[in-house]
């Protein structure tokens, strides 16, 4: 009787492990196979375009181009997520777009200025 209880308890722990770890991981991989390549490809493409524009522009217009490019990148990358937030009624996407905008404008802008030795 004691052995049956231990087996049942061990099986319950495996079920909890599967529910807690494996299910979100499979959802992330399955759903992420659609979202992440598009997100990363769009970010890399827009960053490449912004970099080429910055390298080929006047030193006086760096700040305007960099700020404008970051805003455009936030709008283009964030718009699919806002669309999904409205159509799928999933409010977490709003928070993710806000975090993306914060990281783009405040954090990455300073790093790009440091890398390109732009005036702050």
Write structural notes for this entry:
The protein is mainly α and 120 residues long. Helices cover 88% and strands 0% of the residues. The longest helix is centred in the first third of the chain and has 54 residues.
Q: What structural class results from the helix and strand content?
A: mainly alpha
Helix amount, in percent?
Answer: over 70%
SSE topology string: HHH
Anisotropy-based shape: elongated
Beta-strand residue fraction? under 5%
Largest sheet: none
Question: Stretches where pLDDT falls below 50 for ≥5 residues?
Answer: 1-7
- Helical run tally: 3
Q: Would you report the number of β strands?
A: 0
**What does the average pLDDT come to?**
76
* Radius of gyration, taken over Cα atoms and rounded to an integer in Å: 22 Å
Give a quick summary of the entry:
The chain is an all-alpha fold and 120 residues long.
Q: What is the topology?
A:
Layout: H1 2-55, H2 62-87, H3 92-116
Helix pairs in contact: 1-2, 2-3
Keywords summarizing the entry:
120 residues, 0% strand, disordered N terminus, mainly alpha
């Amino acid at each position: 009787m004691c052995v049956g209880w231990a087996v049942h308890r061990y099986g319950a722990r495996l079920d909890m492990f599967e529910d807690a770890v494996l299910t979100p991981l499979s959802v992330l991989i399955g759903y992420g196979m659609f979202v992440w390549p598009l997100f990363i490809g769009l970010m890399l493409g827009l960053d490449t375009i912004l970099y080429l524009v910055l390298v080929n522009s006047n030193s006086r217009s760096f700040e305007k181009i960099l700020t404008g490019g970051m805003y455009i990148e936030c709008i283009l990358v964030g718009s699919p997520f806002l669309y999904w937030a409205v159509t799928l009624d999933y409010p977490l996407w709003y928070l993710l777009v806000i975090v993306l905008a914060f990281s783009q404008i405040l954090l990455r802008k300073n790093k790009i200025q440091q890398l390109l030795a732009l005036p702050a």
